[in-house]
């Protein structure tokens, strides 16, 4: 009798797993179909109104803003001779003449405690 109940338990367990698998498959297919219909609907709406969809506009604004602050972040540079990324021009380089500051240079007086808030920090 135990063998019969074991067999029946395995059959019921298999049927239950099969039903859950089919339910998951139906859920995934319906989710895929809903997202496909949403993309088609938004694309059709964009074609009819002549406007780009809001997510596309948001990404374009993000990219324009990031390009303003991070020059070359979106551009892939070819590798240099040593395998590292080649560095392009990063801006103007200004060379200055180095000169020695004598020890007997006049010292500026330290500001009073209320005169300049950061004056106390420059010891």
Quick structural gist:
The chain is mainly alpha-helical and 123 residues long.
Write up what this structure looks like.
This protein is mainly alpha-helical and 123 residues long. The chain has a domain at 9-70. 52% of the residues lie in helices and 0% in strands. The chain contains 2 helices and no strands. The protein has helices at residues 2-49, 54-69. The mean pLDDT is 78.
Tell me, briefly, the overall form.
elongated
Taking the alpha carbons of the first and last residues, their distance comes to: 93 Å
The fraction of residues in strands falls at under 5%
Largest sheet entry? none
Question: Count of helical segments?
Answer: 2
Overall mean pLDDT score? 78
Give the ordered list of helices and strands: HH
Summing up helix and strand content along with how strands pair, one would put the structural category as mainly alpha
Number of strands: 0
Helix content percent band: 40-55%
Question: Which residue ranges are poorly predicted, with pLDDT under 50 across at least 5 consecutive positions?
Answer: none
From the alpha carbons, calculate the radius of gyration and give it in angstroms. Answer: 35 Å
Properties at a glance:
0% strand; 123 residues; 52% helix; mainly alpha
SSE blueprint and pairings:
Layout: H1 2-49, H2 54-69
